[in-house]
């Protein structure tokens, strides 16, 4: 009985592992880390896909190739993917999302990205709070102190008592 259950568990584990495997981008990363962007681009174009991982890797390659202007096509495709929220925090300060607004300040791309993400129904509460915070900062930037205060009050945070 125990051998049967163990056999079923092992077979299930390997089955799920095979099903869950995504495309292998190892050759792409090897080329990119060796600073061979041309070969990395060829590999990526040969394995073109519409999945979220390919979109992000393609945008990273564009950035590594010196194309730092935001790609609206990427942003549109990125925000339509089901799991984009998982990747949003990881690439938050990249030029293809919010830019590095902490060091460089806000710009029109930052606010356009904010508006597009704010219009979505986000499920992650921390992500909602981060978007609300950036929106509050935009209002402070525009000297709209009432909206700034209101948005900051909407953020789920612990109120400390001293």
From TrEMBL:
Q: Where is the signal peptide?
A: 1-20
Keywords, alphabetical: Signal
Q: Could you tell me what this protein is called?
A: Uncharacterized protein
């Amino acid at each position: 009985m125990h051998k049967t259950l163990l056999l079923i568990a092992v077979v299930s584990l390997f089955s799920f592992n095979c099903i869950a495997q995504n495309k292998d981008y190892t050759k792409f990363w090897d080329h990119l880390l060796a600073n061979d962007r041309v070969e990395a681009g060829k590999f990526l174009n040969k394995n073109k896909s519409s999945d979220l991982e390919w979109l992000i890797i393609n945008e990273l390659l564009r950035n590594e190739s010196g194309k730092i202007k935001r790609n609206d096509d990427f942003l549109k495709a990125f925000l339509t993917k089901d799991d984009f929220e998982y990747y949003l925090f990881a690439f938050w300060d990249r030029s293809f999302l919010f830019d590095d607004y902490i060091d460089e300040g806000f710009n029109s791309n930052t606010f356009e990205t904010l508006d597009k993400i704010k219009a979505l129904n986000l499920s992650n509460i921390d992500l909602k709070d981060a978007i609300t915070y950036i929106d509050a900062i935009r209002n402070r930037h525009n000297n709209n102190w009432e909206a700034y205060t209101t948005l900051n009050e909407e953020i789920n945070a612990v109120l400390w008592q001293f």
